[in-house]
Amino acid sequence: MIPFNEIKMGDYVTAAYEGSRRNGEVIEINRDDKQVCVETDVQEFWYEPEDLYPIAISDEEMLKLNFTKEVMNDGVVKYKKGAFRLVIPKENDFSSMEMWYREDRRDNPHALYIHQLQNHYHEMTKVHLTNAVMA
What we know:
This protein has helices at residues 59-64, 114-125, and strands at residues 12-17, 20-30, 35-40, 44-47, 52-53, 68-71, 77-81, 84-88, 98-101, 104-107. The protein is mainly β. The protein has 2 domains: 4-53, SH3 type barrels (Roll); 59-125, no CATH class. The strands form 2 sheets. The chain has a 5-stranded antiparallel sheet. The protein has a 5-stranded antiparallel sheet with strand order 6-7-8-9-10, covered by helices on one side. Strand 6 (68-71) and strand 7 (77-81) form a beta hairpin. The chain is elongated and about 50 Å long. It starts with 11 loop residues before the first strand and ends in a 10-residue tail after the last helix. The relative contact order is 0.18.
């Protein structure tokens, strides 16, 4: 379950309904009723927060978000999207990371899941992190 206060418009989450789970994007939030509208590949639907689950950060998810991956000589992996950088100590180890955008640098921010990464990215760049290709 994702804490309701962490959910923001545009976040990618996994929504559970009647035993099935689908990834989708938060397209609307009803703060009064504490419900979240998620658009999946099937439809838009309103969910309770307890039916929403985070998507773990992984190499596959970073590439889906159109980051460019660069493996350094020392094994450190750098993911780049525009001027934004995310660095992990070794391949597939997202337990420790650094991220920076211009003068804003965050060492080991609390970002284990895609929606948390999206929220950091938005705070730093003022742009929503989506799977859209940058121009």
